[in-house]
Design brief:
The complex is a heterodimer.
Chain A lengths: L2 E5 L2 E5 L8 H8 L18 E4 L2 E4 L11 E4 L18 H9 L8 H14 L5 H7 L11 H21 L7
Parallel strand pairs in A: 1-5
Antiparallel strand pairs in A: 1-2, 3-4, 3-5
Chain B lengths: L1 E3 L4 H8 L6 E3 L5 H6 L7 E4 L9 E4 L2 E5 L4 H7 L5 H8 L4 H6 L2 H7 L6 H7 L3 E6 L2 E6 H4 E3 L2 E2 L6 E8 L5 E7 L7 E10 L4 E7 L8 H13 L2 H4 L5 H13 L11 H30 L1
Parallel strand pairs in B: 1-3, 2-3
Antiparallel strand pairs in B: 4-5, 5-10, 6-7, 6-10, 8-9, 11-12, 12-13
Helix pairs in contact in B: 3-4, 4-7, 9-11, 11-12
The chains are: A alpha+beta, B alpha+beta.
Chain lengths: 173, 292
């Protein structure tokens, strides 16, 4: 079948999508964005996490057909959403992952970034327990999670700083 | 495989009629696991995700009507105060990713024995509303799970809603899994107190099918009636609570699988049932005192 899908703001017309295909397959093999990872295909590992119309989900468990006319954000779409002066660089969550040393083999990282992004959108100042809860669906086999949790808390700090920078009382940019 | 894309309720019911074996798909979190594992595709699937009437929720005449597409995230984020038992079970489902997509109707349709929502629906007196071109009907959830992996849904029917009476007392859900969170239930237990009818209703997960702990319920009802405990609001004797737990475990058809042995499940279930009852009754007593 043929379907429309907007990925990271760009509209794609996809041909010959098989009815049993997952959104994950479409993103990797048809749209050509391999950042979203394929691991368990059972919704247990979270490495395929994306935002579908703004909602965090496992793209391996979304029939591609159900994403027709929808808008998807993948890890490739996160960069450039940083604060002032970093329109082209990594966003604050990605920066925090780098600074905290939260990336080892990197396979779980795209999913972790999306889950962290989703948490901070709804809970800008999370407690550590909330971070661990929000990442419960994302499995990492390298880091033991500590640096990842620290990275998310650091990202929240970066964002606080960015917000502060945007609302300077003296009106300075 | 053909994916049918109905635009409204009428079209959905018409497409289901005369096409036996069509698999309705809501959030996809259950069915896609099978498709990804190449366990064989159905000849036909039907997309429920764009049917607005399945997302509607309303309350009237003491009863909540939740459209079948109500997600676990909606239950945890918006209905925790109104439906505490079901919301607790919804919060125990997988991860945020799964709770955002997984729906009540989908869970009922796939009828996985370890699904977290089922015990809560059993204890909370839920009814399932089914519809086809032949009309609509309601089935108490206690009659809905007709066997392992089987339900009362006919091949041409769609699950349209779940109906739940307003809670009258404490409702609890507990589970044992191999991890603290984001895990499948090895076994689970739900309990809800219904003072107006003098009932303590239950649901067991992790057995061959979701089912109430009927023998334990009957035993407890007898004990509470014989000693006037609903009226007195006294503490439940330890031996009653313990026996309730044992009966709950004995009544379940438990098996061995990769997650646990039947023996482990029996032990765990008796503990879950015992603790849940003790906690629920204690909450009831406390609540009662506060209201008195």
């Amino acid at each position: 079948m043929r379907m429309n899908l907007t990925v990271n703001g760009e509209r794609h017309m996809l041909e010959e999508v098989r009815e049993s295909e997952s959104l994950l397959f479409v993103l990797r093999e048809r749209v050509g964005l391999p950042g979203t990872k394929n691991a368990c295909e059972q919704g247990r590992c979270g490495s395929c996490s994306v935002l579908l119309d703004g909602m965090l989900c496992c793209s391996c468990l979304v029939p591609a057909v159900q994403a027709r006319e929808c808008s998807v954000t993948t890890v490739e779409g996160l960069a450039g959403q940083g604060g002032p002066g970093e329109e082209d660089g990594p966003d604050s969550v990605q920066r925090a992952f780098l600074d905290a040393g939260a990336v080892q083999c990197g396979f779980c990282t795209p999913g972790m970034l999306l889950a962290a992004h989703n948490l901070l959108r709804h809970t800008p100042d999370p407690q550590e327990a909330e971070v661990r809860q929000a990442l419960a669906g994302n499995i990492c086999r390298c880091t033991g999670y500590q640096h990842i949790v620290e990275a998310v808390l650091l990202a929240a700090e970066y964002r606080r700083a960015e917000r502060g920078a945007l609302v300077q009382p003296d009106g300075a940019p | 495989m053909e994916f049918l894309l109905p635009r409204d309720r009428q079209e959905a019911l018409e497409l289901m009629a005369g096409r036996p074996g069509t698999v309705p798909v809501a959030g996809g979190t259950d069915v896609m696991v099978g498709w990804n594992m190449s366990r064989g595709l159905p000849a036909r699937a039907l997309d429920l995700s764009r049917l607005g009437h399945l997302s509607r929720r309303r309350y009237g005449e003491g009863r909540y009507r939740l459209g079948a597409n109500t997600t676990y995230s909606t239950l945890t984020d918006e209905l925790r105060g109104e439906l505490p038992g079901l919301a607790a079970a919804a919060g125990a489902v997988g991860s945020r990713q799964i709770r955002n997509r997984g729906t009540l109707g989908g869970s009922l349709g796939s009828a996985w024995p370890a699904a977290d929502a089922h015990p809560a629906l059993l204890a909370c007196r839920a009814e399932v509303e089914l519809a086809s071109v032949r009309g609509s009907r309601r089935v108490p959830v206690r009659e809905f799970f007709s066997g392992p992996g089987r339900t009362a849904r006919e091949g041409d029917e769609l699950i349209e809603a779940v109906l739940l009476p307003r809670p009258e007392g404490p409702q609890l859900f507990t589970k044992v899994g191999r991890k603290a969170v984001a895990t499948l239930a090895t076994c689970s237990f739900a309990v809800a107190l219904w003072p107006s009818t003098r009932q303590v209703l239950t649901g067991v997960g992790g057995a061959d099918r979701p089912a109430p702990a009927a023998v334990a319920e009957a035993f407890l009802a007898g004990q509470l009636a014989a000693h006037g405990t609903w009226e007195s609001g006294e503490r439940l004797p330890d031996e009653v609570v313990r026996h309730f737990g044992e009966l709950a475990a004995e009544g379940a058809v438990l098996g061995d699988d990769v997650r646990a042995t039947a023996e482990y499940r029996r032990r765990a279930l008796s503990v879950l049932a015992r603790r849940s009852l003790a906690q629920a009754w204690e909450n009831y007593r406390t609540e009662r005192h506060r209201c008195a």
